[in-house]
Amino acid sequence: VKSSHILLLLLLFLACFNSSLPYVLKNCTILYQENPSADICLDCAKRKIETVPKDIPKDVVSLKLNNNWLQKINKDDFLGMSKLRTLDLTVNQITDVDQGSFIDLIFLKTLRMGNNKLNYLINNMFQGLSNLTVLLLNNNGIQFIDSRAFQSLINLETLDIGNNRLQQITDIQPILQLPRIRTLGLKCSGFSSFNTRDLQLGLPSNLKELDISGDYLKVFSLTKPIFPYLHRVEFTMCLYYKDLQWDIPEKELLKNISHLYLERPILSDEGITKVLESLDSLRHLRLNALKMRVYEGLLFTVCKIPTLRKLDLFNSNINNLAVQISLCSQLTELDMRKSDIGELPLGSLQSMKQLQSLNMSGNQLIKVPDDIKNLSFLKILNLNYNYILDLTCYDFWNTSLLAELYLKNNRISYVVGCALENLENLKILDLSFNSLTTFDNDLVLPNLEVLKINRNEIGFLKMIDFIDFQSLKELDVATCFWEMLTQKAFDKLNNVENITISHDIFELKHLEKLTIRLNPHESLNRLQSTSSRDIIYLESMKSLTMICNFFFSALDMKEVLWTMRYLENFTAVRFTSQVSGTDIFQFNPHLKSVAFTEGNLSDLDAEIFLPIPNLQSLDLSASNISSLDFLMQANLSALKYLKLTENKLLWINETVFKDFPSLTYLDLDKNPFTCDCSNAGFIQWVKNNKQTQVVNAHRYKCSFPSDKQGSLLLEFDIHSCRDDGSFFCFISSSCLVVLTLLTCFIYNFLRWHLTYTFHLFLAYLYDSRREKKGGPRRFDAFVSYNVHDENWVYKEMLPVLEGEQGWRLCLHHRDFQPGKPIIENITDAIYSSRKTICVISQNYLQSEWCSREIQMASYRLFDEKKDVLILLFLEDIPSRYLSPCYHIRKLVKKHTYLSWPQAAQHPEVFWQNVQRALKTGDTPTENTDLLNGPRQC
Questions:
Q1: What is the DSSP string of 229-240?
Q2: Is 907 part of a structural domain of the chain?
């Protein structure tokens, strides 16, 4: 019975109350995830938020609050967000963080708080962040760090505290003592010196990478072995030039430094030379923006470092000193981008027999440097953004190991086959954004995987035989104009996975991703000019993007799609055809994502979606759509993502979305909504639905009527629309249903409890009246019994108690006042007697009036705190029969009771015990000895 009580109460509670929050956030967007069980990632960036929103889901994993107006982090802002892994608070106005604000973020890994206004890091500011590994506090203005500010960060590995106002190196001493610290950023700090003599560390630091600089930094001194694992040091200049003094007397202190990065002239020529001569393990040296003409002898020093393998000289203006590079014969990687090199003198690279990577992008080269052809170990060559005019047969004569060649954005107009004929290992070739007018069909590049010749001036590609491009996986020839090609043209390209072309599609059995740009200058019938059975066979296609710059019919598109049986993603940009009555996706049942954007689909109907019932994502942005009625017949029960931004939707019928049980992401931004009762249902649905996130709904603005223009849609008062009585009927019917449920529940489970309470209340009123009257007791005891036990009362009880012992008893058959309500007779009898004797049997337990009599007597017992009850059991009653009569069971456990069956052999003892009970006073005794009777009830 009790379990039924609980279950029914729970159902009533759930029916009347729902504690879940609406799935619409005022200031944030839950990023769409294909997997509904995926981690929740929340984007609240760039929303002009002044305080952390209160409606953030507690199970969020990634939270972006950057670029807002936050001024303070309060203690309860992130309460309960124990699953949070990444928190971005950069570019705000945070000045204070309450202690314990991050205490619940026990699994946070990355915390970004750069570009704020923190001045102090207080004690235990990061309490609770025991699993934090990355902390960014750069660009704040921090002047003071409490010695215990970082004590909770036992797993911190990376800390950027640069661009602050720290004055003393001792401020970072607690940081260096963190057990797992690896990378420390101190760029543009206020230190005047970095001297290890000022640090008092119990154990050597685990620091491996140090980035340090400052306008006031004059000395960098390592005199104690407190950084035994340090391997990368970076020095950069902030605003003003300072001649930094390098003070490291023992080379042993720098034995592990393998990476040194120097940006701008922070050291003098002599200073840099001194530094380089003290490093015996240097492998990577970066000299960025040093204006190398000032450091005439520096390259001689650099090239003498025997361990050096990678040298970066970008932005360093080395045109006049390029020949000195030849001394660095040990290099494997050389970066000279943006260094004003107009011509690399002959012999500059000739000695670099081990060079594998060369970057000379962003210079002023007009031809491929002559030394390139002698770099037999070269694998990567980047010559992007130069002024190279052509490629000769000798440019790459001996670079047979070259795997990546980048020639983007030059002035190359022609590529002869002999220029690349020795590049048998070439995998990537980028010739995009040049002046190519044709492409040689004699190229032999068997291992080429990526070819980009887009954004050129190629008039047409005529019958190119790609038989030697068998490894090609990605091809970009967009904006090149093609002459009609046959199936044979791409007959051997079975490994191609991604193509970007202008129009024609070929038999590529392994092609998975294709982008087609349809240019307005081409023939409108290009795709139809040859039988689709001959040129279209793309059975592995999974992703297709078509960028249409002119009218392209839906039937033409169907011809393109018919062989793509396993297509999953389709995108059409600027598609302006009428698609009503067409079935363009008839042969694409596996489509999961469809996008029609920047086109005209004003006549769109549901028929085109019927063949793709498994569609999960639909984007119809900027497509001139004015109604969503077509969605009601689309049968898209699996749809999760729906985007309809920048259309012409004035009003929306919320019943449309009832056909999408899986919809979790809905974006309707930038539509000209109407603020009137036609959108009342939609507004109510946005606020109350618990499944679909309506992205940025609180920022939707109204365009009509004119007096509401610019106001927010969700602020429209929908209560004014409820004048038809429907809402009142809903409330009335709901109340009636709830009342009916409560009535049924009370009648079935609480009827006797309420009856008992009612009689107790009557007894209380009667007791109050009796107290006022203060009348004497007329009887020694009131006898409560069932009519079936009347024979025992008259033959056994009365002769003894009244005849022999002289007690005056009250019996309802004899002493109740005729004509008076029976409940009043019972109450008068109980309160007119000193005691109440209950003759308990099976019949007694089943009697309604007997139950009321013992209830009244129980109330008097509890109210007056007097021992007024005597229980006589005529039968041996098992405890299971007493369980429903919980008030009797409770009384049996604490008060005197007697058993007639157990006194059958000695009835005189039984009556002596009754006499003894009648003689006792009224003071209750919790530990009254049981005279006899059942041991368990």
A1: T--EEEEE--SS
A2: yes
Measured CA to CA, the distance from residue 708 to residue 71 in angstroms comes to 33
Question: pLDDT (tens digit, 9 = 90+) per residue, 44-85?
Answer: 999 999 999 998 989 999 999 999 999 999 999 999 999 999
Q: What is the DSSP letter of 844?
A: H
Can you list the pairs that 163-167 forms with residues at least 24 positions away whose Cβ atoms lie under 8 Å? 163/138, 163/139, 163/187, 163/188, 163/189, 164/137, 164/138, 164/139, 164/140, 164/189, 164/190, 165/141, 165/189, 165/190, 166/142, 166/190, 166/191, 167/143, 167/191, 167/192
Q: Which domain covers residue 897, as residue numbers?
A: 776-919
User: 678 Cβ partners below 8 Å, 6+ apart?
Assistant: 650, 651
In a domain, 69, yes or no: no
As a whole number of angstroms, the distance between CA 272 and CA 286 comes to: 12
What is the three-class DSSP state of 916? helix
Alpha-carbon distance 701 to 736, whole Å?
39
For the domain that residue 905 is a member of, what is the CATH number? 3.40.50.10140
Could you give the CA distance from residue 640 to residue 617 in angstroms, rounded to a whole number?
Answer: 6
**Residue 569: beta bridge partners?**
543, 593
| 686 and 818 co-located in one domain | no
Cα 757 versus chain centre, distance: 53
In DSSP terms, 351 is beta-bridged to none
63, 56 Cβ separation under 8 angstroms: yes
Interaxial angle between packed helices 751-773 and 822-831, expressed in degrees from 0 to 180 and rounded to the nearest 10: 50
pLDDT at 553: 66
Asked if 790 and 700 sit in the same domain, the reply is: no
Write the burial class of residue 12 (CB in 10 Å: 0-12 exposed, 13-18 middle, 19+ buried). Answer: middle
Per DSSP bridges, beta strands 209-212 and 404-406 are unpaired
pTM for this entry = 0.69
Cβ–Cβ < 8 Å for 660, 637: yes
Q: What is the DSSP code (8-state) at residue 251?
A: G
Q: What is the amino acid identity at position 694?
A: V
Query: Does residue 614 sit in helix, strand or coil?
Result: coil
Say if residue 782 is in the same domain as residue 696.
Answer: no
Residue 865 lies in a domain: yes
How confident is the model over 479-515, as pLDDT tens digits?
655 443 444 445 556 666 666 765 555 556 677 888 8
> For residue 606, with 0-12 CB atoms within 10 Å meaning exposed, 13-18 middle and 19 or more buried, which class applies?
middle
- Number of domains making up the chain: 2
Alpha helices in 544-607 (DSSP H): 554-561
705 cis-preceded (ω within 30 degrees of 0) = yes
- The mean pLDDT value for 104-130 works out to 95
Q: Residue 821 falls within a domain, yes or no?
A: yes
